[in-house]
Amino acid sequence: MSENRTVDRQIAVFGQSGSGKTVLLSSFYGTAQNSEAGEPQLFELRAKDDRHNILMQIYLGMKEDSKAPAADRFDSKKTVFSLKQKGIRLNEAAKASEVRLTWFDYPGEWFEGSATTDSERQDKARTFRNLLGADVALFLVDGQKLHDHAGEEERYLRYLFSGFIESLNQVKDEILADGKQLKQFPRNWVIALSKADLWPELSVQEFENLLNKKAASDIIALRSKLLEFIEHDEAFSFGKDFLLLSSAKFTPGHIDISQRKGIDVLLPLACVLPVQRKLRWQNLKVLPADLAMRIGTNDLVQLVVPIVSKVLGSQRINNRGVAVAAMAFSAFVEHMADQPQESLQGFRDEAMQKREFLKALVAEFTRKLDQAVDDRVLVRDL
């Protein structure tokens, strides 16, 4: 078997118009390009094609000129990023491991108002269909609108959740054309508070409590609607993962891009959390056999081939070794998930010395997920 060292991950972002999706994406990317001095960076993040220039233009406009980006009405974007080992030698570049992340935006205007033409309904369905392979979906609660509805937050939240339910109703027949539910569908949904800088004293647990107090029935209704699309609904999480997100601190006439929250955990959420959760679901036997097999022979093997070849004392893994590689990696990921942060840091440093990029990346991303929980920025479904 020729080694495939590319790991594909997808993240879909859902939020109403003005909820901060463009600012979020630009801050995420620009921050990675302009990392502060500190510990050595594991990877280089690069956007494909012309998206690099556009995202950097928006980011630098915010950072240097305090200029917020213009709204993109009815604009669905797909941005592909590559994560590659930093400082790799030229003669090793062809064999270097790569993580490829695809970031999808769902136009916010589609949350609000029904499709008016057959063409628009088909466009909605086509766009939504592109998101079905995402490993993680972010569902944004607009911190500004929540702030504007202080004391009656349920009015805004009901409008937000019911708007997305209606949007799903409009595409359901197109997506489930044969009436069969889907195996490939985002199974990890994180409810995120965008513009969290407007809520400086709020912890993620308090955000979760606020939603449960003001919108429990709306969360249940949206979960039920999403489950209409998906087979094997035991392997599904919605309304149990919460995140605080702040792309920058916005004050009149000034944008402080250094004051951010939750941005650094987006890559770990997209790359590591789904693997951890799929392994847990597989252990609980709530994943169908064919989906579990696809996990074992695609994502996990692509991650594990460069690592397990050394663990097994072999330079190559042939087709018969695929199952062994998947089992070894499963145990490795589960072991990482239970390690204290100081041990994860040790795994990271050792892997960096040995130039085992993917192993170091998994250790680093696992550590960042744990740190976000400790910092009261992230709540994970356990």
Your description of this structure?
By secondary structure, the chain is of the alpha/beta class. The protein has an 8-stranded mixed β-sheet with strand order 2-3-4-1-5-6-7-10, sandwiched between helices. It has a two-stranded antiparallel ribbon with strand order 8-9. The protein has 13 helices and 10 strands. The chain has helices at 21-33, 51-65, 118-130, 143-148, 153-175, 204-227, 266-271, 273-283, 289-297, 299-311, 322-337, 341-353, 357-374, and strands spanning 6-14, 43-47, 78-85, 98-106, 136-142, 188-194, 237-244, 249-251, 254-256, 378-379. Helix 1 (21-33) packs across helix 2 (51-65), helix 8 packs across helix 11 and helix 12 packs antiparallel against helix 13 (357-374). The two termini are 36 Å apart.
Low-confidence stretches: 295-326
Described by the principal axes of the CA atoms, the overall outline is globular
Structural class: alpha/beta
- Total helical segments: 13
Query: If you average the pLDDT, what whole number results?
Result: 81
Tell me the major beta sheet.
8 strands, mixed
> Roughly how many Å apart are the termini?
36 Å
Q: What number of structural domains do the residues give?
A: 1
